[in-house]
Specification:
Blueprint: E1 20-23, E2 26-27, H1 37-40, E3 48-49, H2 52-66, E4 70-73, H3 82-93, E5 100-106, H4 112-120, E6 123-131, H5 135-140, H6 147-159, E7 163-170, H7 177-190, E8 194-199, E9 213-215, E10 229-231, H8 238-253, H9 256-265, H10 271-286
Parallel strand pairs: 1-4, 4-5, 5-6, 6-7, 7-8
Antiparallel strand pairs: 2-3, 9-10
Helix pairs in contact: 2-3, 3-4, 7-8
Bound molecules: iron/sulfur cluster.
Iron/sulfur cluster is lined by residues 29, 31, 33, 36, 38-39, 76-77, 106, 129, 143.
């Protein structure tokens, strides 16, 4: 028998302080984006939301019992309701021992004032679900977003000192090489600290558009969720989609400006180990 399993800390940009712990403040999502598991499972797991007081009691317990210094709110959508988020911020901001926290947001239910309250209450890291910057693709995915507002909020969060990750999905219905290339350009121009580019996996009950296909037996990479690949009519093959994904990672992370920005951040303590971890993960994503 070997020794105890090594704890996998996840991607280095996902945490700031150790020890950290995940907390689930709600289950499910009130939205119905066509490509998302949370939407597909909505019938079996309806939205269940915990009271902010109970969530913050759990945070206090984790601090006292395990010395936890950071909380990762693990639900796919934290800002499901503005008043609920404000109450969470009030309570988290009043903790005797401040806690750093991170969360995932949907951009059409976010505004600059709410963002400011979240950052004041200790939120240091936000994942923004952008998916695409093409309006038709977003509408077909039942996730209409105001793209100028998306740019504005990502930049506002950065100005407030919050780390930003923008998440994109390639292969949504109506997407083509052109819309994906535009999304890559926009991801670069948006300037989040990190970007992730997923391939669209078909989810149960998702409406199929005419001419679109679903491929089984698609080879998945480490850290990728297994599943059947959704290929929209405008994309010729899985290989084309994979190549666009590689191009996105290459163009986003291997820009001289970006490398310079990240190099400057190495001046902060503990960043060199993170950099090596990040570079080895990027190497995996760029492999042919
Ligand atoms: S993508 Fe986000 S907002 Fe849309 S259904 Fe999934 S969790 Fe909800």
């Amino acid at each position: 028998m070997g020794g105890p399993a090594r704890y996998n800390h996840g991607a280095p940009h996902r945490y700031l302080l150790k020890p950290y712990a995940p907390v689930l403040a709600l289950r499910g999502c009130p939205n119905r984006c066509t490509f998302c598991d949370s939407s597909a499972f909505a019938c079996s797991t309806p939205l269940r939301v915990r009271r902010p007081r109970k969530v913050v009691e759990e945070v206090r317990y984790l601090q006292a019992r395990y010395g936890v210094r950071e909380i990762q709110f693990a639900e796919p959508l934290f800002n499901w309701n503005r008043d609920w988020v404000l109450e969470m911020c009030d309570r988290l901001g009043r903790l005797h021992e401040p806690v750093a926290w991170s969360c995932h947001v949907r951009m059409d239910s976010l505004d600059e004032e709410l963002l400011g309250r979240m950052v004041q209450a200790g939120c240091w890291n936000i994942l923004f679900g952008v998916e695409s910057t093409n309006v038709d693709v977003l509408n077909a995915a039942n996730k209409p977003l105001d793209i100028p507002q998306v740019f504005h909020l990502v930049k506002a969060a950065s100005r407030m000192g919050c780390q930003t990750t923008a998440s994109f999905v390639f292969g949504l219905p109506l997407s083509t090489e052109k819309t994906i290339r535009q999304t890559i350009e926009d991801a670069i121009y948006m300037e989040p600290d990190y970007a992730q580019f997923f391939l669209h996996k078909s989810v149960s009950g998702e409406p199929m558009h005419e001419g679109d296909r679903v491929l089984s037996g698609f080879e998945v990479r480490a850290n990728e969720i297994p599943g059947r690949l959704y290929l929209p009519k405008g994309i010729a093959s899985a290989e084309q989609l994979r190549e666009l994904q590689r191009e996105a990672y290459r163009r986003f992370y291997l820009r001289p400006n970006y490398i310079l920005r990240r190099t400057r951040s190495l001046l902060k303590p503990g960043q060199i180990a993170r950099l090596f971890d990040g570079v080895s993960r990027l190497g995996g994503l760029l492999k042919p």
